[in-house]
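Minutes, methods subgroup
Present: GH (chair), OT, SY

1. OT presented the first of two proteins processed in the latest run. Sequence and structure tokens recorded below as shown on screen.
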Amino acid sequence: MPVSWNGVFPAATTQFFPDESIDLKATARHLDIMIKAGISGLVLLGSVGENTALEYEEKLTVLKAMIEAVGGRVPVLTGVAETTTRLACRFANDADRLGVDGLMVLPAMVYKSDAREALTHFRTVARSTRLPIMIYNNPPAYYVDVTPAMFGDLAGEPNIVCIKESSDNVRRITDLINIHGDRFILFSGVDDLLLESVLLGAKGWISGLVNAFPEENQALWSLATAGRWEEARALYRWYTPLLHLDTHIKLVQYIKLAMAEAGLGSETVRAPKLTLAGEERERILGIIRHAIATRPALAAAAAL
């Protein structure tokens, strides 16, 4: 199944009012800001989008509203993070009817799967839909590891076209290419391994901190993919303390706090997540505010 996914695809946040109800207008406004900054696609309702904190019908409401707001300007994918394979298949088909362009499929939530169970889950969801699929491999977060060799068992599913590699082991990019050639489009899913991943052959980036720093994020991608390594390294070194925030268990709170400090959204999250407090909040604010105060000029990157 041919698709042309590449470039920066934000793992977009879902914006909430102070009472934790969904703020569709703010969510759409934020997507528009990122699209105007030059992103190439969007992933709604991923981990950063607080998928599992939303009720089933709420997810469909978000998808419907955001697809309308995007208006075909970039491809829109949705996370599929349900507790059972049957429910994941149902959600994939409901999302298809709403007009999404693809799916980012996670392992079934709550129960840890072994290799046979994980592969069966992905294969069953793929066979339930006509949509192209990105498999999200994030063993540090979800305790299910789809190894490079295991993707051979999924290569026969024509609509499994892409891998979001978030194992925290950048060697996987080379291993996947050595084993599978160009069968799968490879996306980096770890913000602070982006430059390494591009060097090794990643064609896209599912990014978290792009929610707060869309221009700098796009500039880094543009410099890296243009092979302007000295400029890319300099920007990466400024950006890396922020990118580290994407690899923490509280990445949603950290990213939303950065958005709030950058004037791009609210830091409100939905329980059981809670907004940051005390020493932790001050420490993360220090990282964010230092980065804002030392923002680099982007004129050269903008010319790309």
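2. SY then presented the second protein from the same run.
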Amino acid sequence: MIKTSWEGNCFLNFFNNNASLGNVDKTIFKSKSTSPYKLLKSTHDQEGRCILPVLHTAGGLVGGDLLELEVNLENNSKVLLTTSSAQKVYGTVGRSKINPKGSFSKQNTLINILDNSHLEYLPQENIIFANGLYDQKFKVSISETSSFLFSDLVRLGRSSSGESIESGVFRSKLEIMRNNDLYDDWEYVDQIELSKESYVARSGMDYMPVFGSLIWICEKDFSKSKINNLVRNIKKIFNESDNYLSIGILENGISVRFLGSSSQDARKCFFCIWKQIRSVCGFCEPKYQGVWPLQDSMNY
């Protein structure tokens, strides 16, 4: 039997090489990957943060595809991990007489962040074509002195051509746990499922095709007053936005939801929040990465 689906694996191990960039240590990495994963050239900012774009060379996912990503940050590392293009999930329901219900394409991501390390995982959006089935899972383990910033954007259908998700389904599960040998110390658990039913419901997406989540988990001893000030500043910025934005304060961090009609608006919104988070952490201001699309037409 000929296997027609992708099974791609990528392992990334980041560590501080203790080499000085001015007064800043530099994060470098070792990797191992199989198709369709490809790593683009990494760069560094003035804080020694490793900026690494990951590329999916197959152009999209179909039913049965499986991608597995493992990311480890050793002590004293700073990393911005992103992707160079949107993840396209093609339709699978009704395509096969053998399996008319279709099959899910899946991505599993395992992340481990050790002491005094900071990971920003900001991939481009997932586009679920009509009748596409997609299931993603993230398991994150983080130390008490480290932080994790994650954004997740999804577009249901190609609305510019009048397409919705139809019989497609998008599933996502995120689990974040603090490293603790004595007991399970859960920071955040989130599980969603989006389908045509949630897309058309007034109490759901109300025909707005773009949904996004941004989660920031800070160090355990991070100032609560700084978190409160961060939330106030974010609310001021988006008071007059045409999109729907909700913000919640977590025990150690914030949770943001976006609902709107434009992927570009969502990226712009999350970029502004990212700048605020970098500022409250005392890190350098982020720059819009050249590997991201539409960067030249966006003003911040």
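Chair's summary of item 2: The CA atoms of residues 178 and 226 lie 21 Å apart.
Next meeting: continue with the remaining queue.
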